[in-house]
Model the fold of this input.
Amino acid sequence: MRRQHGRHQRRSIRLKDYDYSQPGAYFITVRTVNLECIFGRISNGAMRLNMYGKIVRKCWDDLPNHYLNVKLDVFVIMPDHVHGIIFIENDPDYYVGAGFKPAPTKETKPKKHGLPEIIRAFKTFSSRRINKRRNTVGSPVWQRGFYDHVIRNEQDLNRIRDYIINNPLRWHLDKYNPNY
Done:
């Protein structure tokens, strides 16, 4: 962390000067706080979701209902993290006025939401629902930030899809697996 004006400032892992609301495919990874395995377990190479994992799945699947410029691709929930691919489209019909915020007035131009806003909403709403079930209102579920990779071509897309789909099969090799 860097210090700025007496406070710690987190170093951004986003690409400098890159517009994360522009059309494209994005690979994301979001980890739980303290890498806590709270979404279920891996059994015979397949993820078995518990109630918290099912909440995460529902919140992920609901994103296109709130961000009309978003299309979802492959997604996997692991015991302590998620991986997914999000496509952001640039069709004027997909512009979103509100997302999870108050609707704009007629004088304001509808805003096209970018990847950080979409992931923020996913984390916020899944956390609220999980914490309500755990009776731990306000407790963090997710680590701050998230990892992203801008998918550059079809070969990159297919390699990442394969990685996501086969992630549960490789759980026994994951250094964060408590049984590793």
Q: What stands out?
A: Confidence is low (pLDDT under 50) at residues 94-98. Strands lie at 2-4, 7-9, 24-31, 40-43, 46-49, 70-77, 81-88, 147-151. The longest strand covers residues 24-31.
